[in-house]
Amino acid sequence: MVASGDFRQDLFYRLNVFPIWIPPLRERPDDLAELVRHFLRTVNPLVGSQVTGISGRAEELLLQYHWPGNVRELRNVIERAIILARTGKIEVRHLPKNLAPRARRQTLRPLENIEHEHISGVLKAPLTTSSARRPSSASPAPPCTPR
């Protein structure tokens, strides 16, 4: 960042005296519950809600998520859930749909439908093989054994 000019070199060296590394939230699942409680305490008064906690299933969903946005993303998710819930506990329905594991978000379709779509697509697709490979009624098929 310093080399590209996005960060001041003098400031970088002042801050780099004692570097602090904090692992990403996905590597600290034990911190999640405490962070949720903290955000409940701080966000409730800001939005005028009285949310008291989070359901077990909703908490489980938060623990399964990989948190690419780290703590900021968690705060936004909790704030949104508090706004939607208004009172009581945060439930799964108050959480964004993208928190659901990928396998649960996929809609399973019967194999017959998938096969039918594939076969229909293949039959509708234009032939892309060269004419030299296609048998012609005018030319006999090559013999299987040399004569």
Q: Overview of this structure, please?
A:
- There is one protein chain.
- The chain is mainly alpha-helical and 147 residues long.
- It has a domain at 26-103: Helicase, Ruva Protein, domain 3, CATH 1.10.8.60.
- Helix content is 47%, strand content 6%.
- It is built from six helices and two strands.
- Strands 1-2 form a two-stranded parallel sheet.
- The N and C termini lie far apart (74 Å).
- The mean pLDDT is 84.
Kindly summarize this structure in a few lines:
This protein is mainly α and 147 residues long.
Descriptive labels:
mainly alpha, 6 helices, two-stranded parallel ribbon, 147 residues, Helicase, Ruva Protein, domain 3, 47% helix, flat
Compile the SSE list and pairings:
Blueprint: H1 9-15, H2 29-47, E1 50-54, H3 56-64, H4 70-85, E2 87-90, H5 102-105, H6 111-124
Parallel strand pairs: 1-2
Helix pairs in contact: 2-4
The tally of helices reads 6
- The CATH class of the domain at 26-103 is identified as Mainly Alpha
Helical fraction: 40-55%
> What structural class is derived from the secondary structure elements?
mainly alpha
Order of strands across the main sheet: 1-2
So what's the overall shape? flat
User: Tally of extended strands?
Assistant: 2
